[in-house]
């Protein structure tokens, strides 16, 4: 019988995505309604564009707090380490098209670019 945890990881194709977007919907940087509307929009658009659960696609995670409690909803895209403000549905469309698909950060929405350093990280199986 397959391990349920491994089955979920395989279904999500963990490790095959090109980028991972975390979206704060905790309610301090934006109202809970704004955060939820952005989250639902993000899920729908990634699915519509065929970017969800695909090799080279985008992994998405809903976060309760990204610790920048103003000008939200806030998002961060890894591995780039690009932090975004004002992640409304309209701005998420720009982030998806320009950054997640075309690879160019949306400069007027960027808070900071802060990639995590890779030196010294242990990697199991030789993959990052």
Structure description:
The protein is α+β, with helices and mostly antiparallel strands and 128 residues long. The protein is 30% helix and 18% strand. Strands 2-1-3-4-5 form a five-stranded mixed beta sheet, covered by helices on one side. Helix 2 crosses helix 3 (89-101).
Summarize the structure.
It contains 3 helices and 5 strands; from the N terminus they run αβαβββαβ. It is of the alpha+beta class and 128 residues long.
Summarize the helices and strands and which ones pair or pack.
Elements: H1 4-12, E1 19-24, H2 32-48, E2 58-63, E3 75-78, E4 82-84, H3 89-101, E5 110-113
Parallel strand pairs: 1-2
Antiparallel strand pairs: 1-3, 3-4, 4-5
Helix pairs in contact: 2-3
Largest sheet: 5 strands, mixed
Shape: globular
* Annotation field: number of helices: 3
Low-confidence stretches: none
Distance between the termini: 28 Å
Task: Name the helix and strand elements from N-terminus to C-terminus, one letter apiece.
Answer: HEHEEEHE
Give, in spatial order, the strands making up the sheet with the most strands: 2-1-3-4-5
Radius of gyration: 15 Å
- Binned, the helix content reads 25-40%
Please state the structural category.
alpha+beta
Count the E strands.
Answer: 5
The proportion of residues in beta strands is 15-25%
């Amino acid at each position: 019988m397959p391990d349920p945890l491994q089955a979920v990881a395989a279904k999500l194709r963990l490790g095959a995505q090109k980028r991972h977007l975390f979206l704060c919907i905790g309610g301090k940087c934006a109202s809970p309604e704004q955060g939820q509307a952005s989250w639902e929009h993000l899920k729908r658009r990634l699915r519509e564009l065929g970017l969800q659960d695909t090799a080279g696609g985008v992994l998405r995670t809903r976060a309760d707090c990204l610790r920048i409690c103003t000008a939200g909803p806030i998002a961060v895209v890894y591995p780039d380490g690009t932090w975004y403000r004002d992640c409304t549905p309209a701005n998420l469309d720009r982030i998806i098209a320009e950054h997640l698909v075309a690879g160019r950060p949306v400069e007027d929405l960027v808070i900071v670019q802060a990639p995590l350093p890779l030196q010294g990280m242990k990697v199991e199986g030789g993959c990052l």
